[in-house]
């Protein structure tokens, strides 16, 4: 009782509106509206306008291309500088060990990870629009680069390589295999940078939307498995070949297991100790996040401890533990990448360019939304393209945004891109001054850092349970992305996942939800009759809605479901009518023959009765028999009920329809004509302006199908159908 009273009180407080207006169809509505006059521009005028330059336009383009010119003059030093310094130092401390570690994933010497942690990070300060993401080496991209490098230069390849002197002139301290892999990695960065730069200049930032979140998360989870398996040999200290391509995970695990008896115990102990320390440090940072002024830089602490222990105990010579090795001081002179490699690695570069951009722009959007500023997807493409393109001349491999470092940069008080610049300067100091100190660092320590940083990606396995409850289709995308990337390799896996995601879009448009709508009494609101008890249908009126556009892939489904949902098939009714008419004709013919026969019998009977003086009796009988046939009307001869529709009007709700193609328009026209033949008028309600323009271009309207069939809303159409 109390609930009912509260409900009534709520209804009384609800705002109401009353509108009195004509019933609008599109013909009437367009007659009362006046279109704005627009002079269409020719192609020449459009080109001339786009090429026209003014000081204001030039300044706008310059600020767009170099965002630093816009935000740096307004930089509030007192408010932001301290936070950016702390954030830059904290991020730089993470950049160092991750740069060294991810170089192993990219199949290049560790120093190239430091190069990739300096040049691109510094360049992003000038061209990037996100204030919080940390550009540099990232596990997934590094793994993709390493896969291509190993495919092009497998472990078995002898020291006869590409004829080149550009990048390799002074790499005497590296063997030929690493030299060639560096060439591949650098050229890959060069090409992926060009692709990103071209896509950005052509305003193709929207390509990232095709990498939906479940696809990216499934792909990165598979990449985490790839990364983890690739680091097992470093953790165990065993010597195995590195594999790439389909089933590389299986081959890598099999190779490690086949050499498990040769495990270097010293390397394993050092690696496991580092893993434990890193996990403890991450747990402390997570639990005491609010109390700690800055996160404990456990990675650099582990690197320092590992380097000290390795140097003090001489692990390399005494226990045969693999170490980082020679780290040359200073920066290398710029060199041109190996252009002749481009045809062999183009598809891989395209995949790396798109995945790298997708990672960066997704993190940029998260931070922009959180802190209330905007990022430009096209400018992010340009920024990443410049970072990769220019970085390739300085021996950098492909880079993107790192999720873990970005979170540290934001959580430690970073306000602008200055924090990223400071982190790159820290890497520069190491390269110029103290890089040689890290030469004794065991590779198993770097493997431990990589493995622990995969913890967040492995948590994405929890997506399976979540997506199972929320969306089976998105779960299918996640699973396909994961399985394909795991077993086919990251390149083919990504292509497979994107293709499958496209197929799901087609599947959804071909399998939309169809509804019959009814009215909520005394309102102009129409809802699904099967979902709400209060919703009622008008007698003789059906309102049909499909939550999809109308085009070649679903037009047949639309028409067949319409007939099924309304319970009336015009073709079946017309066929029944034709069949009934034929039967009627046959029965009329039979009735005529019966009448003729009865007349003949009557005449013969009359003659016979006259002769026998029995006219009254038999005459009455014969007369009655004849009259019973002659008095039958055509309707009484029919033994069927003429099939007639139980509805007089059909309304198609076009609210969810975004576009109609030529196949959809023809199908729609045939629906209107078919139902008209059986006495049912068809109306279209809530048709948007762009859809109506498309119908006009497709010559949908003619003498039989006019704009009077289109109504502004469902309620307009319902009222008009009731008047008819």
Automatic annotation (TrEMBL):
It is found in: Membrane. InterPro entries: S04_transporter_CS (IPR018045), SLC26A/SulP_dom (IPR011547), SLC26A/SulP_fam (IPR001902), STAS_dom (IPR002645), STAS_dom_sf (IPR036513). It comes from the Eukaryota. The keyword Transmembrane applies. Residues 531-721 form the STAS domain. GO terms for cellular component: membrane. One of its GO terms (molecular function) is secondary active sulfate transmembrane transporter activity. The chain crosses the membrane at residues 100-127, 133-150, 184-211, 249-280, 292-313, 345-369, 381-400, 420-438, 477-507. The keyword Membrane applies. PROSITE patterns: SLC26A, STAS. It is a multi-pass membrane protein. Keywords: Membrane, Transmembrane, Transmembrane helix. This is Prestin.
């Amino acid at each position: 009782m109390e609930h009912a009273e509260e409900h009534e009180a709520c209804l009384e407080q609800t705002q109401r509106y009353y509108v009195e207006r004509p019933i609008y169809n599109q013909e009437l509505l367009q007659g009362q509206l006046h279109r704005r006059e627009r002079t269409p521009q020719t192609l020449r005028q459009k080109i001339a306008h786009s090429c026209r330059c003014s000081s204001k336009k030039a300044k706008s383009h310059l600020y767009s291309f170099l965002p630093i010119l816009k935000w740096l003059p307004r930089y509030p030093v007192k408010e932001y500088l301290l936070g950016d310094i702390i954030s830059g130092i904290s991020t730089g401390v993470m950049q160092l060990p991750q740069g060294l570690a991810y170089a192993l994933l990219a199949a290049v010497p560790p120093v190239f990870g430091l190069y990739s942690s300096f040049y691109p990070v510094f360049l992003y300060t000038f061209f990037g629009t996100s204030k919080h993401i940390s550009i540099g080496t990232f596990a997934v991209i590094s793994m993709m680069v390493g896969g291509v490098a190993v495919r092009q230069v497998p472990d078995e390849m002898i020291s006869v390589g590409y004829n080149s002197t550009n990048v390799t002139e002074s790499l005497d301290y590296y063997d030929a295999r690493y030299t060639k892999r560096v060439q591949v990695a650098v050229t890959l960065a060069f090409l992926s940078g060009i692709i990103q730069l071209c896509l950005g200049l052509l305003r193709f930032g929207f390509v990232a939307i095709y990498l939906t979140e479940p696809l990216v998360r499934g792909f990165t989870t598979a990449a985490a498995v790839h990364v983890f398996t690739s680091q097992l040999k470093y953790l165990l200290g065993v010597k195995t070949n590195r594999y790439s391509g389909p089933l590389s995970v299986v081959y890598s695990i099999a190779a490690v297991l086949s050499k498990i008896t040769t495990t270097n115990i010293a390397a394993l102990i050092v690696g496991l100790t580092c893993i434990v320390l890193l996990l403890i440090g991450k747990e402390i940072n997570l639990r005491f996040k609010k109390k700690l002024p800055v996160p404990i830089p456990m990675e650099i602490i582990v690197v320092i401890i590992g380097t000290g222990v390795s140097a003090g105990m001489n692990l390399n010579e005494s226990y045969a533990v693999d170490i980082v090795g020679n780290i040359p001081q200073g920066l290398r002179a710029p060199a041109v990448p190996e252009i002749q490699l481009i045809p062999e690695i183009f598809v891989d570069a395209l995949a790396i360019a798109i995945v790298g951009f997708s990672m960066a722009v997704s993190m940029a959007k998260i931070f922009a939304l959180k802190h209330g500023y905007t990022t430009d997807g096209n400018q992010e493409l340009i920024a990443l393209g410049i970072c990769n393109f220019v970085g390739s001349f300085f021996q950098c491999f492909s880079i993107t945004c790192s999720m873990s470092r970005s979170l540290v940069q934001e959580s430690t008080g970073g306000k602008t891109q200055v924090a990223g610049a400071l982190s790159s300067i820290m890497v520069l100091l190491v390269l110029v001054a103290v890089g040689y100190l890290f030469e004794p660092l065991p590779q198993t320590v770097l493997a431990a850092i990589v493995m622990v940083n995969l913890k967040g990606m492995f948590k994405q396995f929890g997506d399976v349970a979540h997506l199972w409850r929320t969306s089976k289709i998105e779960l299918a995308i996640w699973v396909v992305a994961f399985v394909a990337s795991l077993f086919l390799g990251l390149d083919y896996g990504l292509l497979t996942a994107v293709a499958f995601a496209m197929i799901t879009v087609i599947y959804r448009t071909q399998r939309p939800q169809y509804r019959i709508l009814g009215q909520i009494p005394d309102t102009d609101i129409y809802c699904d009759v099967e979902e709400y008890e209060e919703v009622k249908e008008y007698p003789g009126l059906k309102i049909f809605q499909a939550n999809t556009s109308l085009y070649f892939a679903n037009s047949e489904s639309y028409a067949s479901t319409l007939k099924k949902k309304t319970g009336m098939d015009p073709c079946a009714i017309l066929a029944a009518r034709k069949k009934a008419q034929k039967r009627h004709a046959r029965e009329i013919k039979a009735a005529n023959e019966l009448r003729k026969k009865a007349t003949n019998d009557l005449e013969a009977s009359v003659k016979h009765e006259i002769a026998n003086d029995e006219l009254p009796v038999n005459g009455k009988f014969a007369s009655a028999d004849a009259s019973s046939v002659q008095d039958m009307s055509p309707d009484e001869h029919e033994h069927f009920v003429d099939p007639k529709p139980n509805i007089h009007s059909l309304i198609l709700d076009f609210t969810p329809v975004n576009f109609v193609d030529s196949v959809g328009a023809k199908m729609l026209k045939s629906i209107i004509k078919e139902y008209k033949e059986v006495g049912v008028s068809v109306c279209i309600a809530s048709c948007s302006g762009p859809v109506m323009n498309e119908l006009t271009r497709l010559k949908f309207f003619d003498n039989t199908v006019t704009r009077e069939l289109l109504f502004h809303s469902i309620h307009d159409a319902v009222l008009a159908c009731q008047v008819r």
